[in-house]
Amino acid sequence: MDASPNLAPVLDGIAHKVSEAEFKRTLGIPVGHDIDDRTLAHMDEARSTFSEVAKPWVHTQPHGISSIIGDKISLNSGIDLTCELLVRKLEAAGAHMIVVVAVSAGAEISEHCDLLWQTNRPDEAFILDSLATNVVEQLTLRTGMQLCDWGEPEGMAAVPHYSPGYKGWDILEHLAILPMLAAELPLPGPLEVLESGMLKPKKSQISVFGMTRHTERILRLPGLCPCLDCSLEKCAYRRAPRREKS
Question: What is the pTM assigned to this prediction?
Answer without folding.
Answer: 0.86
